[in-house]
Amino acid sequence: MPPPTHSVPPGPGARFLFVLGGGRPGGSTEALARRAADGLPDRAARRWLRLADHPLPAFEDARGTPAGTAGAGDRHERVLLEATLEATDLVIVSPLYWYTVSAATKLYLDHWSRWMDRADLAYRERMRGKTMWAVSSCASPDPADADPLAGMLRRTARHLDMEWGGLLLGRGPGRPDRSAVTGLPAGPRDRPPAARPGEPATCDSTGRPVEARAFFTAGVLAAAAQR
Ligand SMILES: Cc1cc2nc3c(=O)[nH]c(=O)nc-3n(C[C@H](O)[C@H](O)[C@H](O)COP(=O)(O)O)c2cc1C
């Protein structure tokens, strides 16, 4: 996986939109994203939107039909659309669910296809040049398990001529051990990860340790160091 490509420090006009797609408000992914946001320069504006608060309709592929190109969508869709267009930096905050993003996050991205079809929006043109970032957490100790998530988002960014900022990955808790309640045997990940001293708490998509607070500026520092 290539290193972060983002090389422009969040400038005076930077507007970060954090799109929360997890199924657990206040979970470890959101906590990690908030830690990373703490490292942003004060001048960078930030907005947080929880997809569960703005449920999108099931996606219908109506490309090329009048239904697919018309309609401003409902209130929730309009909030997400306007916030997406307004942002300079889009942060996809999703736990790792089955090696990729959550269903809510995927549905949000599916709606991009609809928005791209609306001539009145010039969606593709207006997304060009923004930066996409990802923050995720998983139960697995192997960062490569998040390759599908990182690869899908990186390619999606490229498809829209956006920059790819990179993935910040943390280890969240595994499935709670319910063996006492269910009688089922505990699985290998049915417990929080062992906090081993020296184990990097957070890393990028290559497994390289990244301090959460430095995430949004790490690419900038790496690029500066190479000059
Ligand atoms: C539906 C579902 C699918 C999951 N799939 C994976 C997975 O493929 N790999 C993994 O390491 N963890 C997986 N997990 C565990 C979560 O990624 C992990 O617990 C994460 O830290 C949860 O984030 P949260 O604390 O923000 O809710 C899955 C959890 C759920 C609920």
TrEMBL record:
Annotated Pfam families: FMN_red
Domain of life: Bacteria
Keyword Flavoprotein applies: yes
Matches recorded under InterPro entries: Flavoprotein-like_sf (IPR029039), FMN_Rdtase-like_dom (IPR005025), ISF_SsuE-like (IPR051796)
Record key words, sorted: Flavoprotein, FMN
Region feature (Disordered): 171-208
Occurrences of domain NADPH-dependent FMN reductase-like (ranges): 16-140
PANTHER family per UniProt: NAD(P)H-DEPENDENT FMN-CONTAINING OXIDOREDUCTASE YWQN-RELATED
Protein name according to UniProt: NAD(P)H-dependent oxidoreductase
